[in-house]
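dumping the sequnces here before i forget
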Amino acid sequence: MGGTRKSEIGDRMVKRLPLYLRLLREMRDRGEVYASSAALAKILEVDPIVVRKDLAGSGIGGTPRLGFPIDPLIKGIERYVGWSDATATVLAGVGKLGSALLGHTGFRDHGLQIVAAFDPDARRVGRRVSGVPVYATDKLTEIVRRLNVRIGILTVPQAVAQSVADAMIAGGIRGIWNFTTVQLVVPAEVIIKREDLAASLAVLSHRLHVK
Amino acid sequence: MGGTRKSEIGDRMVKRLPLYLRLLREMRDRGEVYASSAALAKILEVDPIVVRKDLAGSGIGGTPRLGFPIDPLIKGIERYVGWSDATATVLAGVGKLGSALLGHTGFRDHGLQIVAAFDPDARRVGRRVSGVPVYATDKLTEIVRRLNVRIGILTVPQAVAQSVADAMIAGGIRGIWNFTTVQLVVPAEVIIKREDLAASLAVLSHRLHVK
DNA sequence: TAGATTGTTAATCGATTAACAATC
DNA sequence: TAGATTGTTAATCGATTAACAATC
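..and the predicted 3d for all of it:
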């Protein structure tokens, strides 16, 4: 029932990988060479066994007494998550949230490069927002196809979310990062990742109430 | 090991509740009175059994042959997640992301009302952004205490994240919605909900690579 | 009464945690 | 050699799925 949701290694683990990556990069920048699972675990407030399991999944082995070699480990995790080289991405909907994401410098550290943005507003088209050129939305399919882009970020108003998603898919996009609350209807081979602020908020306020 | 992470009902379920809520409100607005678990399940692409389990958790029972009464169910879920009446919230860091969140109308549907924003920039202080007054950051603790606010949204630069979080907690804030990548150090009774875009992105790009 | 849907109890599945042998 | 840390195998835990009785 529902879309294709199988992936040999769990999402829970994949979600932790950016944490390791961030921390390992910091350690590398401080000149450290090895990191033990216990040290990583303590900072990230997880169990050391979790760390070892996760890192094993990344393909890089550790050395008893020393820990894991930081530099190879960083490269291993990057390769594993698919962040080795920047993936070209487009963003549709240059409103407040869209502009914020365009200005988010952290994406570069996570293998994502936004190469084009789209908006229907003539006042925005032709300009650059945080260095990214803004095109008219009706050029989306064509430009996506020409640039061979596989990931699209969707920050448009609810009303046009489905049609813009359709335009992305028509251009060859395979994964959509959906910041709207619309339940998109897409072909089975397209992967949708919803970014649901309401869900996060629910977890927070529920925990506050339970206490 | 680590903070207080116990909550008698799983986060997975709590995360699904906003989906039900959104859908049920739409159905109510269309004039519908009952919703069956099968109908909800089909739209949300989950199993009907999951829906029944989740809704049972909300405390509202269904009727065989009819389904669940929409209006009581909405109220039940709202009560359950703690969204019955708007919770006062503050936001610190009126940059791009902060402004986007201040303008996010959806929060009102989720029991959240941002009553004050904080920024150190003198050009922003004293103005209103999307109707929310902006105060100087050094007034944060005082205003939070006076307004008796329990939830804080953190959209400040990494460098000041910890100190602003400290100021929030000093004012009595019990839950922080952390949009930075900083691993905040807080007392055990304070709940931190990280909003990690990198983690979401990792899941998406990993799935694309696995396929 | 017949049929559809709820809600509960049991079975399966996956992830986390624990125990411990292997290794530098 | 002694000691610390990895990595694997087993045990526990929680969530999902399945089966089915209860109910309108």
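The first helix of chain B runs from residue 11 to 29.
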